[in-house]
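G., before I forget:
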Amino acid sequence: MCADAAIRCQEGEVDEAELLRRLDEVVRDYRGKPGALIPVLQIAQGILGYLPVEALKRISLGLQVPYSEVAGVVGFYSYFSTIPRGKHVIRVCLGTACYVRGGKDVLEAIKHELEIDVGGTTEDRVFSLEVARCFGACGLAPAVMVDKTVHKRVRPMKIRQLLAPYYEMESMQEERHVG
Amino acid sequence: MTTQRMHIGMCLGTSCIASGAIEVRDALLRELAKNGLKDKVDIVQTGCNGFCANGPIMVVYPGGFFYQKLCAADMAELTQEHLLKGRPVERLMFRHPKTHQVIPLFKDIPFFARQELRVLANKGHIAAERIEEYIGREGYEGAARALTEMSPEAIIAEVEKAGLRGRGGAGFPTAIKWKLCRAAAGDRKFILCNADEGDPGAFMDRSVLESDPHAVIEGMIIAAKAIGAREGWVYCRAEYPLALERLRTAIAQCHEYGLLGERILGTDFCLDIRVAEGSGAFVCGEETALMRSIEGKRGEPRPRPPFPADRGLWDRPSVLNNVETFANVPLILRHGADWFRSVGTRTNPGTKIFALTGKVNNIGLVEVPMGMSLGEIVFDIGGGIPNGKQFKAAQIGGPSGGCIPLSHLDIPVDYESLTEIGAIMGSGGLIVMDEDSCMVDMARFFLEFTQEESCGKCPPCRIGTKRMLEIVTRICEGQGEEGDIERLIELGETIKDTALCGLGQTAPNPVLSTIRHFRHEYEAHIRDKRCPAGVCTALVRAPCQNACPAGVDVPGYVSLIGEKRYAEALALHRNRNPLPGVCSRVCFHPCEGKCRRHTLDEAVSVRGLKRFMADQEVVTQLPEIRESAANAARKVAIVGAGPAGLACAYFLARLGYRPDVFEAESQPGGMLVQAIPAYRLPREVLAREVGMIERLGVDIRTGRRLGRDFSLESLRADGYQAVFLGLGCCQGTRLGIPGEDGPGVCEAIDFLRGFNLEGAREVGRSVAVIGGGNAAVDAARTALRLGAKEVTVLYRRSQDQMPAFAEEVEAASEEGVVFEMLVAPLEILRDGDELRGVKCQRMQLGGFDRSGRKRPVAVEGSQFEIAVDQVIAAIGQQLAGADCVSELRRSRRDFLLADPMTGQTSAPWIFAGGDACTGPASVPEAVAGGERAAVGIDLHLSGKAHAFWREDAQPDTLFDPEADPVAYPRAACRCIPADRRQGNFKEVEGVMSEAEALREAKRCLRCDYRE
Amino acid sequence: MSDDKKITSVEKLRELKSRVKREISLREDGYQACVTVHMGTCGIASGAPEVLDAVLDELEFSGRTDIRVTTSGCIGVCSREPVMTVELLDEKKVLYGDLDPDKARQVFRDHVLEGKVVPRYVVTLGDGA
């Protein structure tokens, strides 16, 4: 268990330097384009999984936008995260239709199952939990989005089944790493 | 390209994919290959079809056969049967929610049939990712006309003539926006599309982008030419990955086909459109915030003016329209302004798309002419409310909108009418709520939303909504205080006037509108500490108990029955309601309506258990009494020995009072003895429970009528310090038609009272009962038992609108009572004095009335006569003995006005309750009214409240919360067969056996259980 | 990017439109003809499925896309099963009875494709059909 974590951690560090280099390329592409900051932040988060200070500094320098402004924009939008997030982001819809049909109970069940709060990430960094306002899938309420997949009419009792495939995916990848 | 024999429109919208549409498509492809149909059947991958709750969906052409709720395993059968043999598969088709009839064709399904598909005409019809198919359906014809034949001024004139108004919410005329921007100085202008559909519960923009993205692009091309823009942006929220993908694909195709970029369609016109993806900020739907966000800044709104038409994106003149607005534009250019105006109203032409969700049978997108009534949308298209529940309100306009109550179902849905009643059109999210939705909780939900989404720039929005949320949360938690409602209104009005942007200014709307239409729910939370819908957890011990007007501890006595502790169970019931025997026969059991067991299989048979419990008692036990010499010395008079008066006497006696009850008739019981027939309520059951109350020291004096034998003044002179008026509501209402006066016509309550108290009543050979309430059904069943050969109930509305309990109507039909629905009497026909019949008229259902029901309207030339020799009128009851209490204030419906918490009337020493205050209602409601007045009288006389019975205690019965619920089904109710009910008044309903009762009691899920 | 796809004029837009229109006409509501094979229990027992197969076969062979073939339940003329209704646009319905695959093929070719009623197999003409 400890060994696994160490391997992942090491890889993570190696990766991050490489990933930051990729970010620099993106920043170069966008330099001078109007309105570049937000798309670059979105791509950066896509590459790194979150927005570490180092990335924000590079973006600030590369796009010649004051760091305070970069940080201000990151703080404003709920999609941006400056803390590491899980590999899979669970978004529980609490839009009106989902709320009326019991979305709150689903959220409670997930919190209970993963032992994290809204905005939190599990210790193994597999899942992060967020609340969303309407995916426009009101016909399927209550809905939960994991990454880009919408799960419909989620029942609190069935949370474990819903999350199981993602755990399986993780353990398979892990085997590959170790193997 | 070969022409295929069949096309299958397969919905691959977000919702259908979530329901498994990809797996279904792949299975279908495999089956087609297996059966050699690969080249003969084309699968058209369409965007969102709009009937999202029924996905995955496919439509088979030719014919337009609609298949729903598909799974991969269905594809083999579908291919074999329909695709190969041409035999459509009924099993997979839509069924009418009420009649359960199969409806094979897409166009015949009521959900689609009543719609006016214009903007959504391509949904489910074309492959969203193939630009050719859009072109094949007249796509880009509007742009072609605009670019090659029309000047910018002519385009604006056409849109102005059409009267198109912004579909994003406020309804601002689109042409005026364009005109201002066209006139603005500067050669660099922007055309912007708002696809940041943030209102929870609205998803029409997503659907349009997924199913018909080119319609939006075409609209933007036309608008760009009109205002002189060469650059465009679509701002779309990140929560819509599929819509973003389709949009980007469509833009790329347009470049490929020369419909975007340089020299479009060979003209000098050029336009580039780029996509900006949102990053999760609701406020970016506000136009100035959206523009800042495209610029790469924090999406904070700024004050206007300057308006975007002068200084918008990067301070250049810009026009921002919403997705649906743009999608309307090509249609106007293609078909002309007159065509556009051919539906909708004069000031609101065209159609509007609504996202119909919540507690409604058909969930999905509906496109209807502007001005259609809300009732038509919810009931005719939406198919009404599931599980037979009552419609309570529709929430429209999202967090900026408001609620529309039952009494406004007839409202035409257009910008002005909605604003008038405190809602807004908004983007068109229409969320239906039923009796199980708490309006205070909904207000809290929306406030929480705006609070979280407030960008924080201006204090009224940031701090004001937070204050409002604190107050509403407190109310939901049972900590509400007097004055909270006024504080909310004041805060709301201030925020409305002072917030910087639209989001802030409209944030108080959900609260203000629920206060406006549902103030009584706020008051119930604040004063009564009760959540009538049973939603607010802090106020609800168990939904059944919460639903009981008398507040009886249902799970408590049910679990005691389960342990054979019948005496304790009865004592627990009597703690809140002294009439378990009576209620076990006549209560309409609202507890069962809210039973959570219903979500598993069926509700617990609470009334059946109560009947079993009541039948177990041999010697009637007395409840806990707190003797008080001081109270015994205070004289209290109770007028009327109906359930309200009896309950008031009972609870006063438990506090040590010795009230005197004055009853006008010869027997105590009120409606229980006068109106309810013995086959429903055996008289000895009532007598036992009245006797129990008398044994508490209550003196019941019959034959003493208010106004004849005594008066309020004489009571005062006799030393009574307080009076409770349980006058009831047994005065009949006249029919008001010719021929009414004379022999053969009587009033239902008079008829029933005459038989029940005097033991005999003349009955005709064939009898017409006019009305649809419980009195009408009781009179009809009594007439039949007294020897009438034919009994017909005439009711001017439809059967599902009858106020009578469905079980009673069913029992009456079994016994042979004929129900003629949608019939109104016009005249009582007579030969000389003798009654010979009723002249009637057929009715049909029209628009919705204030009661939320469809109004009966006369059918021209449909008059007919029925031959009868007796008519019993049962069309409503009024306050009894009204002349004797003329100094007291009356309610709008002309009943006695009393404080809902204490029963105190406008004269401080006089209290009232039961039907006299509410109009004809149920036994438990009357009991509750009597109890509240008893507490009120005690408070008035002693200065303190002593209602010790109101404290709930956790029953000490065993319960294992970890165990699975027992599996057996609801115990059936046993009745004696209809042929053995003729000519007698034996009790119809039977009682369950002990074994059945013990099993039934275990079905309770114990919602009251707390760890 | 291939330039040959570029629509450089309104005329070219209309050319493309009319070409695609033909392809997707199957999805439109309008039909030139509608053939209904009645598939009640008695119909199926007397050979209606074979009749339907023959009709579908003919339809495919004809290459027409404006003809709709459907099935429906029993029509109540059980003694004449298998039966089939043919309805041409703007013309009266015709009910044919005592069919077999060959007769059905003839009805399809003569009536549906050519517009000539086949009197030999007619059960009823007009709305009674």
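Chain A is about 55% helix and 10% strand. Helices of chain A lie at 2-30, 37-48, 53-63, 67-76, 96-100, 103-114, 159-178.

More on Monday.
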